[in-house]
Amino acid sequence: MTTILHVDSSTLGEGSVTRELTAYAVERFKAHHPNAKVERLDLVADPIPHLMGRPEDQSFANQLKAADTIIIGAPTYNFTIPTQLKAWFDRLAIAGETFRYTENGPEGLLKDKRVIVAIASGGVYEEGHSFEHNQSYVRAFFQFLGLEAEFVVANGVAISADSKLQAISKAKTGIDQLAAADEPVDA
Ligand SMILES: Cc1cc2nc3c(=O)[nH]c(=O)nc-3n(C[C@H](O)[C@H](O)[C@H](O)COP(=O)(O)O)c2cc1C
């Protein structure tokens, strides 16, 4: 059975752009896998404590390993992801479990998963811009674990109401395309 892990980290509740996009993505991916099990992590309603020492608890890493599709809301707060999302990342990178060090450098141990990341930002920062530390960081983090994240980006949502609507609509089209590319293995 397909397992979808649905992760949100926006603090903006009902008005959140990324929460709207991840909910939409879960719905679209479920359309391809009607029997999918959806696991939920709301990192604001149920925050993960910041690390004190090394990550001993492997339950979040195990949950990630058990998921087939991971759908993550990653708002841009002060140029990067929310601290709530970072606290989850801190539980996922565990040497010997999700990555390992080799003589040739670190090697990710995860494979065969889709990581779909919905980003929203008030302004517009493309990867490579000196203020852009969300998409590039999330991409690198999952590459480190062996996974290639796929992104939908709603940017410029603070520029105007029209710009926000357009950004959300474009991101939803992107989600439709990503979901359509999914194999209906257990439909
Ligand atoms: C605390 C806070 C910090 C923010 N910092 C940035 C920022 O650095 N750059 C930016 O483009 N937008 C910034 N914004 C705007 C958000 O990226 C925008 O509201 C986006 O919709 C957030 O996603 P969400 O609606 O899912 O929470 C910030 C918003 C908040 C609430």
From TrEMBL:
<keyword id="KW-0520">NAD</keyword>
<dbReference type="GO" id="GO:0009055">
    <property type="term" value="F:electron transfer activity"/>
</dbReference>
<dbReference type="InterPro" id="IPR003680">
    <property type="entry name" value="Flavodoxin_fold"/>
</dbReference>
<feature type="binding site">
    <location>
        <position position="10"/>
    </location>
    <ligand>
        <name>FMN</name>
    </ligand>
</feature>
<keyword id="KW-0285">Flavoprotein</keyword>
<dbReference type="InterPro" id="IPR029039">
    <property type="entry name" value="Flavoprotein-like_sf"/>
</dbReference>
<keyword id="KW-0288">FMN</keyword>
<protein>
    <recommendedName>
        <fullName>FMN dependent NADH:quinone oxidoreductase</fullName>
        <ecNumber>1.6.5.-</ecNumber>
        <ecNumber>1.7.1.17</ecNumber>
    </recommendedName>
</protein>
<dbReference type="GO" id="GO:0016652">
    <property type="term" value="F:oxidoreductase activity, acting on NAD(P)H as acceptor"/>
</dbReference>
<feature type="domain" description="Flavodoxin-like fold">
    <location>
        <begin position="3"/>
        <end position="177"/>
    </location>
</feature>
<dbReference type="InterPro" id="IPR050104">
    <property type="entry name" value="FMN-dep_NADH:Q_OxRdtase_AzoR1"/>
</dbReference>
<comment type="function">
    <text>Quinone reductase that provides resistance to thiol-specific stress caused by electrophilic quinones.</text>
</comment>
<dbReference type="InterPro" id="IPR023048">
    <property type="entry name" value="NADH:quinone_OxRdtase_FMN_depd"/>
</dbReference>
<comment type="function">
    <text>Also exhibits azoreductase activity. Catalyzes the reductive cleavage of the azo bond in aromatic azo compounds to the corresponding amines.</text>
</comment>
<dbReference type="GO" id="GO:0010181">
    <property type="term" value="F:FMN binding"/>
</dbReference>
<comment type="similarity">
    <text>Belongs to the azoreductase type 1 family.</text>
</comment>
<dbReference type="Pfam" id="PF02525">
    <property type="entry name" value="Flavodoxin_2"/>
</dbReference>
<dbReference type="GO" id="GO:0016655">
    <property type="term" value="F:oxidoreductase activity, acting on NAD(P)H, quinone or similar compound as acceptor"/>
</dbReference>
<keyword id="KW-0560">Oxidoreductase</keyword>
<comment type="subunit">
    <text>Homodimer.</text>
</comment>
